[in-house]
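Researcher: Sequence recovery benchmark, item below. Answer with residues only.
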């Protein structure tokens, strides 16, 4: 597995396809042996919104360039009022977005 780097920014958290809240993100990306990309990170929300958001079945993040990233909640037990730990289950931001 190769470490691609990290990327961060702002976007809109979507819950079940509907705009839910403005969000910040910090994602670390990896390239797997067969060329498949994966990622993990944190989504930051206004206090109290994160706990409500993890109850939704489908979470996505629309980042500034318009790309929509599918998210899976990585840890439902670690609950803080304004953070969601996530795994990226779909496409990652473009390769130029990564910094080491």
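Model:
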């Amino acid at each position: 597995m190769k470490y691609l780097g990290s990327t961060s920014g702002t976007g809109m958290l979507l819950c079940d396809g509907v705009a839910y809240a403005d969000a910040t993100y910090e994602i670390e990306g990896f390239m797997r042996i067969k060329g498949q990309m994966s990622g993990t990170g944190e989504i930051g929300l206004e206090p109290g919104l994160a706990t409500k958001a993890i109850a939704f079945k489908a979470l996505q993040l629309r980042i500034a360039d318009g790309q929509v990233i599918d998210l899976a909640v990585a840890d439902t037990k670690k609950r803080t009022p304004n953070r969601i730990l996530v795994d990226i289950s779909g496409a990652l931001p473009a390769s130029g977005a990564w910094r080491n």
